[in-house]
């Protein structure tokens, strides 16, 4: 399955961190240096591949000397001496040299690298034509040549690379038409040709690509009409055709794109009216049609776009009234209908759009009073150019005669609570405190250590493989050297709802950096080719349940969605049973590091801490109440924080994926940290009440600023707090920073004491005496109602239950690397 020759980047065992440390010490500009022995394949490079690489080297200009190791005989090209080259059994499988300041051209001898799976030279200054010989690369999965200076045509031969998943030629000077033959790459997943100078029509053949998720053709010189068959692209998430010369009307078939999240057709020459089918697209988040010639009315059915956050219809020729139903688009943050020909009043219902931050109805022919809420929130530049509009800052005062306008648009009943749509693109996650290092290496380098080690233990075998390259056994077949070489089928990536889209190749070849380790495995921050991050947890070997049980459980966990629970976005099952879990990446890191490892002059105030406690209680209530899952390992290290310092509980239900033996180890480890309920030493089975104990410990941690592991006068945290409190309700227990808050606001002191009592209640030695999560939540909300309200309004962005649309992407390609 993978570019990385059977080893993925997350395959770092106990030697991983020391290896990584070593690399960090040596490799500051990691990408610049040869990757030493780490990427060693142990096999001498095949002749054709060596010639190919030498020709490529010759055509490149390398002002910064990144390729200085590409010299000599080249016999060591596959053993790590040639920067950016990855081999499997003497055949080059990946070239990765992004951001290297490389100029010159891409030699057409690249076509000799017949095993090449990934070609990544983006963000350089390469010019000349794209070689037609790319079409010989039948193993190619990804071509990343964006942000260069390539000119000439997109070679039609690229369509012969039938296994291609990603093609990104954006940000070049390509001209000519988009070849219809690209549709030959039937597995294409992402096609990005934006920011070129392509002309002609969008070939309708592209609409036959069954897996296409992202089609970006914006900022070109494309003309003609949109393909009427566009509705065939059932997997499409994103489409942008903006800044072209596309004419005609928007095809009705667009309504079939049921997964579409972003539609950007702005700045074209589109005309006609809005197709009604467009408003069936419930998954749509962004709709941009500005700068066209679209006429007709905005239909009432617009409220079908339930998840819409951005609606821009500016600079068209729309007429009629703004429908009252726009007020039902509760997630809307941007609404721009300026520079149209709209009439009538601004519906009062728009007042209920509580997330609206950008609003513009200027330069229409609107009349009547502006709803008071909007006139307070937005200044005149949102309303000008409507001669008969009144009641906004700087306009005429409305006379009561204009009241028909208000009766024409009665306020909407507030059927739904206003919700804020969280930005799905801000996918973030963070793990257990310690970010060991910053590490930028090329694809898969890390993983080669194990192979490397094994190769070095059996040098003869390696040599034999080298000479017998043509007969090398594919993949991991039986007694292959190290058992980990070669590509193989069988790897399986399963996506759950939400999150980034990526292929298994993207995941396995992402740049990875260790964030931390836990009993269940190692967590990495993985940087995808497009620069976004995900957190990847590689489960330790032999701790998970057998595959069937594992899959049942993991599919259940993938459906778990709550604003305070870290969402599982995908999982990968490797051909040899390796298991990767993919989560959102949280930049802020864990609560433990937020509280205990921060700069001295960055206090965490009481409302922030309270908001975290409330979030935790909400998350736990959902976990226990709705999902019927016991966490079993709740600590401040696996509570993560998003940008707004909202709590996200990580590792939810992971114990369900593990064997009983693995789980008892986790219980023991949690005990060492002080979060373990006392009865667990006998019971060995986590319950909702043991989770409440852990929650109580985290609340004490928030209140006192002390870690549960810390002891004071030989007493653990609850004992110490209880001892202080028994004598008298003294302020000595609280974090000094909170005492400053308490001194400033008279209510804070009381809130602190009430929260402390609640926390002590949670850590009661007797499980039966501890409250339920729901009771904790209710009491916290009573203690500080303002937090409760603000937290809930910012937290209702994601539905608490999502339907389980599980898409499976299987790379069933048989191992082809060495054949
Ligand atoms: C290749 O380049 C490296 C680094 O610039 C240098 O140390 C080495 O001697 C060169 N080898 C040959 C055979 O030119
Ligand atoms: C864009 O295409 C039009 C014809 O469709 C042509 O007249 C124009 O010169 C092209 N512009 C560029 C910059 O190529
Ligand atoms: C706007 O409507 C007026 C009156 O109906 C019409 O005269 C005008 O041409 C329209 N403007 C545009 C740009 O369609
Ligand atoms: C604006 O709308 C009014 C009716 O509300 C109409 O009488 C007038 O002609 C319109 N003006 C333009 C420029 O469309
Ligand atoms: C109105 O608000 C916008 C931002 O919403 C700001 O850019 C603009 O300067 C303001 N204009 C006036 C006249 O206050
Ligand atoms: C509203 O749109 C008009 C015209 O497009 C523009 O001049 C103005 O700056 C916009 N105002 C805001 C607040 O976006």
What this model shows, in words?
The chain has a 13-stranded mixed beta sheet, with no helix packed on it. A 7-stranded antiparallel beta sheet has the order 26-27-28-30-29-25-33, with no helix packed on it. The protein has a 3-stranded parallel beta sheet with strand order 21-23-24. The protein is of the alpha/beta class. The longest helix is centred in the last third of the chain and has 21 residues, at 606-626. α10 packs antiparallel against α17 (773-783). A hairpin with a 5-residue loop joins β29 (568-573) and β30. Residues 1-7, 12-41, 400-488 and 790-819 have low confidence and may be disordered. Helices cover 23% and strands 14% of the residues. Among the domains are: 479-584 and 803-816, Phosphorylase Kinase, domain 1 (2-Layer Sandwich); 591-792, Orthogonal Bundle (Transferase(Phosphotransferase), domain 1). The structure holds 2-acetamido-2-deoxy-beta-D-glucopyranose (6 copies). One 2-acetamido-2-deoxy-beta-D-glucopyranose is lined by residues 317, 341.
Q: Secondary-structure map with pairings?
A:
Blueprint: H1 16-26, H2 47-59, E1 60-61, E2 85-88, E3 91-96, E4 103-104, E5 118-120, E6 142-144, E7 151-152, E8 166-168, E9 173-174, E10 190-192, E11 199-200, E12 214-216, E13 221-222, E14 238-240, E15 247-248, E16 262-264, E17 269-270, E18 286-288, E19 310-312, E20 334-336, E21 343-344, E22 358-360, E23 365-369, H3 372-377, E24 388-390, H4 404-408, H5 448-457, H6 459-467, E25 492-495, H7 504-508, E26 511-518, E27 521-527, E28 533-539, H8 547-557, E29 568-573, E30 579-583, H9 591-596, H10 606-626, E31 639-641, E32 647-649, H11 660-673, H12 680-683, H13 688-704, H14 717-727, H15 736-744, H16 746-762, H17 773-783, H18 785-795, E33 807-810
Parallel strand pairs: 3-5, 5-6, 6-8, 7-9, 8-10, 10-12, 11-13, 12-14, 14-16, 15-17, 16-18, 18-19, 19-20, 20-22, 21-23, 23-24
Antiparallel strand pairs: 1-4, 2-3, 25-29, 25-33, 26-27, 27-28, 28-30, 29-30, 31-32
Helix pairs in contact: 10-13, 10-17, 13-16, 15-16, 16-17, 17-18
This protein binds 2-acetamido-2-deoxy-beta-D-glucopyranose (6 copies).
The site of one 2-acetamido-2-deoxy-beta-D-glucopyranose has 2 residues, from loops.
């Amino acid at each position: 399955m993978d570019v990385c020759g059977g080893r993925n980047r997350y395959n770092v065992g106990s030697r991983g961190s020391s290896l990584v440390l070593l690399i960090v010490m040596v490799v500051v500009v990691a990408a610049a240096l040869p990757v030493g022995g780490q990427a060693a394949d142990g096999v001498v490079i095949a002749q054709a591949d060596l010639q190919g690489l030498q020709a490529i080297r010759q055509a490149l200009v390398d002002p910064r000397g990144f390729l200085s190791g590409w010299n000599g005989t080249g016999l060591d090209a596959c053993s790590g001496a040639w920067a950016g080259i990855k081999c499997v059994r003497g055949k080059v499988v990946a070239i990765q040299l992004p951001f290297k300041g490389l100029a010159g051209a891409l030699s057409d001898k690249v076509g000799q690298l017949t095993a090449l799976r990934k070609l990544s030279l983006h963000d350089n200054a390469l010019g000349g034509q794209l070689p037609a010989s790319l079409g010989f690369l039948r193993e190619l999965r990804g071509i990343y040549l964006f942000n260069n200076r390539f000119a000439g045509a997109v070679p039609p031969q690229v369509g012969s690379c039938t296994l291609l998943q990603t093609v990104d030629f954006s940000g070049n000077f390509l001209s000519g038409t988009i070849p219809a033959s690209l549709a030959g790459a039937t597995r294409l997943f992402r096609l990005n040709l934006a920011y070129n100078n392509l002309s002609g029509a969008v070939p309708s053949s592209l609409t036959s690509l069954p897996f296409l998720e992202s089609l970006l053709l914006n900022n070109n010189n494309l003309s003609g009409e949109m393909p009427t068959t566009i509705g065939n692209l059932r997997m499409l998430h994103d489409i942008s055709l903006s800044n072209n010369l596309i004419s005609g009307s928007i095809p009705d078939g667009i309504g079939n794109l049921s997964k579409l999240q972003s539609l950007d057709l702005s700045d074209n020459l589109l005309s006609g009216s809005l197709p009604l089918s467009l408003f069936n697209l419930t998954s749509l988040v962004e709709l941009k049609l500005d700068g066209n010639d679209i006429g007709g009315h905005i239909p009432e059915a617009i409220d079908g776009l339930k998840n819409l956050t951005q609606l821009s219809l500016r600079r068209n020729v729309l007429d009629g009234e703004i429908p009252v139903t726009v007020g039902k688009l509760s997630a809307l943050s941007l609404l721009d209908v300026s520079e149209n020909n709209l009439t009538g009043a601004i519906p009062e219902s728009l007042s209920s759009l509580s997330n609206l931050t950008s609003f513009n109805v200027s330069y229409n022919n609107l009349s009547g009073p502006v709803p008071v809420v909007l006139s307070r929130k937005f200044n005149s530049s949102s309303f000008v150019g409507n001669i008969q509009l009144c009641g906004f800052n700087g306009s005429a005062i409305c006379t009561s005669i204009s009241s028909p306008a208000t009766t024409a648009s009665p306020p909407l009943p507030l059927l739904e609570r206003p919700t804020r749509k969280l930005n799905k693109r801000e996918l973030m996650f963070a793990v257990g405190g310690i970010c060991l290092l910053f590490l930028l290496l090329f694809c898969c380098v890390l993983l080669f250590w194990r192979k490397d080690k094994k190769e070095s233990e059996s040098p003869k075998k390696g040599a034999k493989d080298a000479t017998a390259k043509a007969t090398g056994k594919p993949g991991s077949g039986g007694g292959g050297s190290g058992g980990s070489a070669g590509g193989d089928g069988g790897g399986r990536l399963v996506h759950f709802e939400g999150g980034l889209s990526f292929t298994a190749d993207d995941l396995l070849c992402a740049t990875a950096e260790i964030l931390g380790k836990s009993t269940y495995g190692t967590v990495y921050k993985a940087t995808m080719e497009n620069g976004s991050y995900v957190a990847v947890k590689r489960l330790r070997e032999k701790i998970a349940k057998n595959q069937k049980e594992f899959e049942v459980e993991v599919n259940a966990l993938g459906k778990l969605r709550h604003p305070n629970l870290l969402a599982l976005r995908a999982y990968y099952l490797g051909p040899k049973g390796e298991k990767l879990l993919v989560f959102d990446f949280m930049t802020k890191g864990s609560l433990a590091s937020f509280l205990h490892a921060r700069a001295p002059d960055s206090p965490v105030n009481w409302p922030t801490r309270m908001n975290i406690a409330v979030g935790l209680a909400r998350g736990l209530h959902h976990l226990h109440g709705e999902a019927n899952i016991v966490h079993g390992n709740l600590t401040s290290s696996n509570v993560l924080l998003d940008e707004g310092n909202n709590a996200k509980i990580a590792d939810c239900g992971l114990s369900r994926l593990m064997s009983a033996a693995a789980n008892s180890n986790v219980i023991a480890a949690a005990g060492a940290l002080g979060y373990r309920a006392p009865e667990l030493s006998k019971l060995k089975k986590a319950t909702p009440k043991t989770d409440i104990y852990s929650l109580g410990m985290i609340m004490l941690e928030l209140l006192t600023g002390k870690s549960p592991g810390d002891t004071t006068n030989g007493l653990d945290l609850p004992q110490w707090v209880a001892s202080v409190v028994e004598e008298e309700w003294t302020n000595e227990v609280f974090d000094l920073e909170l005492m400053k808050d308490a001194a400033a606001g008279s209510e804070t002191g009381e809130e602190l004491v009430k929260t402390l009592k609640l926390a002590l209640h949670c850590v009661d030695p007797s499980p039966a005496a501890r409250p339920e999560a729901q009771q904790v939540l209710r009491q916290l909300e009573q203690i500080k109602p303002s937090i409760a309200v603000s937290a809930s309004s910012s937290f209702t962005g994601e539905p608490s239950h999502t339907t389980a649309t599980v898409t499976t992407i299987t790379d069933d390609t048989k191992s082809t690397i060495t054949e």
